[in-house]
Design a protein that fits this description.
This protein is an all-alpha fold. The protein is 74% helix and 1% strand. The protein has two domains: 26-258, Growth Hormone, Chain: A, CATH 1.20.1250; 259-480, MFS general substrate transporter like domains (Growth Hormone, Chain: A, Up-down Bundle). The protein has 18 helices and two strands. A two-stranded parallel ribbon has the order 1-2. Helix 2 packs antiparallel against helix 7 (141-169).
Length: 487
Amino acid sequence: MNSLQRVFSKITLKPSAGSERHQRPEANEDDFVEFRGGDVENPRNWSLARKRYITAITLLLSANGSIASSITAGNSQSITEEFGISTVAAQLPISLFLLGFCAGPLLFGPLSEFYGRRWILYTTFFLYFCCTYLTAWPPNLGGLLVGRFLAGSFASGPFVIGPAVLVDLWDKGERGNAMGILICISWVGPALGTVISGFFELKKNWRWSTYACLWLGSFTIMLMFTIPETHSPTILTQKARLARHQGHNMQSAGEASRPKLLQLYKTALTRPWVLLFDTISFLCCLYSCLISALQYMLFNIYPIVFHDLRGWNVGVSQLPVLGQAIGAVFGLLIIFYHSRCRKRKADMGRDMLPEDHMILAMIGGVGFPISMLWLSWSAQYNSVHWIVPTAGGTVLATCLMLIHVSCFSYITDTYADYAASVIAVNIVVRCVSSAGAPLFTTQMFDSIGIGGGGSLIAGTAALLAITPFLFYRYGHTIRSKSKYALA
């Protein structure tokens, strides 16, 4: 029996406890169940190979939603022709998918704290897959839009729960790289989705873009069911229930102090909006809004530059978008290097302040308007070689990645006890700004030109570029005056 249990453990990637499962669980001084030292049921004690595998599947689950968010970006023409709508209305599948993403931090995040990660991941991704299946054969435009909104809502589950799974598995010093890759996926995924849809538009139609999401989703679902529960309080609750079944009168700390689900949602739905207007949170959200809006504006800007102005075909005109993915990876490598430097300084005994994260944001803040001007004004003229605006877009993506990750890390460290609520409201406002961006980008750049539109964005970025410098110099003072931030 123990041999069979060990074999099954390899399939589910959850370590077999063997005969240890029949022993009385360890209890602390309050008689609550806790993990023993080296307990194989503690996710932090799982083997490195298991933790890496679960991390990889978690990243793949998030990648599905990221790619799907922009999978119709290159299909405006076929959507317009099939449903007889304007080019602006053809952007609604993207906008509604992104609006649906708001459900993640407000709905599924609290559920994962209450019921654990595993079944919320299973349920949300399976429902995302079902809704994506429906969007492949909608009876009309309304069916497509409703399906995209619901698909976005359920895709946000793995996207929001993913970071929580990484926290469950890795110590603070170990999970930095995985978190960086997870954030990078939110940049690389939409770029890939845009390119994929562009080439399907060239030979097929928008439905084939949705088929691509279904193919990826089918592969992911098979791997998803190998993910075990990683939420320690949920695992301890299961251990306590097993102990009671065996005749031991024990409970876990989570069972004793478990809030009601209604109270959990009351906090989850109200606290983020209170924290939104705290100074640091508000300015970081403002900066994040501009970055996220620009990310999805670029998926309309590149076709204007390379398809409308330069006459490239629908598929090839999307290829320069890959510069965004390359730039995001460059930014990620810089972040890895900076994190390693911070770790060395911490090992030497130096205190690490939240404001240290602003160093990269200051670099990105200065580079943002410069690279935006580089991209827009070099794209304005067809006589300029195509590599010049593409390189500008790559540098722009690197700068945006540096700002985004720095702000994310800063608010996480600043609002330690309220980090989940601050991150939740940050994600919501980013999704709302991203959803609105595709609806006005084409008209804006048709009216004032590529150079003029880029200059407007660069000017806004220049005004916000002072934010990381302000936080780096006066962040401690601002934190000391906040009711929620660490002093």
